[in-house]
Amino acid sequence: MAHAKAELLLAQTKQNTDNKQNQGSSDNKQKSDNSNTKKDANNSKSSSSTTGKQTTTKKKTTKKATKKTTKKATTKKKSTKKATTKKTTKKATKKKVAKKVKKAKKVVVASSKFTSLKGSKKAFVGKWKTAKSVSGYQVRYSTASSMKKAKTKSTKATKLKVSGLKSKKKYYVQLRSYRKLSGKTYYSAWTKAKTVKNR
């Protein structure tokens, strides 16, 4: 009987030690689980903080990009405005110049006409009326009615003798006046050709 009791006590002590070991292992497991959960929480916090940082950096970069694009757009607008203003000014100046040229082209030169045209020995003498506000006169002559290969002589007087011609030849003679204005010379129309025969 005493031997049986001793065996029971040994069995109970073993069971108690096993239970304690099991409890210790379970406590360790709980601690490890708790530590793992804490690590997971910390990891999630760190990941969330990193994602937040990334989003903020992305926002900053997008703001910078938008600022750059707006600056580029403003510079482009300014350049286009400058180009348009330059073009308009150039067009305006061209129009002004064209108007001035047109005004210059509208200068009317008073014409004149022969009062007498007489032939002499290998020459002829022409006389005409005085025209208003003119600088001088031009006389051209040719043996052809089309005035082909015509020669021209200028004078400020109202009389001109043309010599050195071929004898006994018929000549076609025309007259026009001219006016010099601001460095340019303006002409009237040629008169209708008159004929003269020298001796």
What labels describe this entry?
single chain, 199 residues, alpha+beta, 5-stranded antiparallel sheet, 3-stranded antiparallel sheet, 8 strands, 52% helix, rod-shaped
Report what the structure shows.
- By secondary structure, this protein is an alpha+beta fold.
- 52% of the residues lie in helices and 25% in strands.
- The protein contains 1 helix and 8 strands; from the N terminus they run H-E-E-E-E-E-E-E-E.
- Strands 3, 4, 6, 7 and 8 form a 5-stranded antiparallel β-sheet that branches.
- The relative contact order is 0.10.
- Strand runs, count: 8
Oligomeric description of these chains? single chain
| Unreliable segments of 5+ consecutive residues | none
Hey, roughly how much beta strand do the residues contain?
A: 25-35%
Biggest sheet architecture: 5 strands, antiparallel
Given helix and strand content, the structural type is: alpha+beta
The arrangement of helices and strands along the chain is HEEEEEEEE
Helix residue percentage:
40-55%
What would the average pLDDT be, to the nearest integer?
A: 75
Helix count equals 1
Distance between the termini: 190 Å
Q: Gyration radius, to the nearest Å?
A: 59 Å
Shape descriptor reads rod-shaped
